[in-house]
TrEMBL record:
Coiled coil: none annotated. SUPFAM superfamilies: PX domain. One of its GO terms (biological process) is vesicle organization. The gene is Snx11. It comes from the Eukaryota. It is a peripheral membrane protein. It is found in: Cytoplasm; Endomembrane system; Endosome. InterPro entries: PX_dom, PX_dom_sf, SNX10/11. Residues 11-128 form the PX domain. This is SNX11 protein.
């Protein structure tokens, strides 16, 4: 008898959604975005996750990925335009699309996927300094523990539900 072989296609969906202005009206206001990830890839610790990150953190991530990837090119981020013609909403939407394209390309790259900073960025709410400490083994948790701890805390799902209109 011929044996049926099912090859499970590895799929990772990453969405950048729901831009929100934080500290609105103050000099240190910024926009952060929800990053929703759903995957069946063995590369990821949690199969679904949901975190909020701001543009500045993406810039840090790109820099770190490039440092570790050597000659492997890291995808580009949308530009940090200070002169933008059009509404703020348009700018935020353009940036959201650019950030999503950036992440979509990053998660398809095996070399970049091996960087644990990327995993903490996508699947934990640790700050940049905390990610650095964790990767260098100076945090209170390992990379996997930090991600599982965040997954268990269920913040991601609560947030997912709340944002439904």
């Amino acid at each position: 008898h011929a044996q049926a072989v099912f090859v499970l296609q590895e799929l990772t969906t990453v969405r950048v959604q729901d831009p929100r202005v934080q500290n609105e009206g103050s000099w240190n206001s910024y926009v952060d975005y929800k990053i929703f990830l759903h995957t069946n890839s063995k590369a990821f610790t949690a199969k679904t996750s949901c975190v909020r990150r701001r543009y500045r953190e993406f810039v840090w991530l790109k820099r770190q990925l490039q440092k570790n990837a050597g000659l492997v090119p890291v995808p580009d981020l949308p530009g940090k335009s200070t002169f933008f013609v059009g509404s703020t909403d348009e700018f935020i939407e353009k940036r959201r699309q650019g950030l999503q394209q950036f992440l979509e390309k990053v998660v398809q790259n095996v070399v970049l996927l091996s960087d644990s900073r990327l995993h903490l960025f996508l699947q934990s709410q640790l700050s940049v300094p905390e990610i650095e400490a964790c990767v260098q083994g100076q945090g209170s948790q390992t990379v996997t523990e930090a991600i599982l701890h965040y997954a268990m805390s269920n913040c991601g799902w609560v947030q997912e539900e709340e944002s439904r209109p």
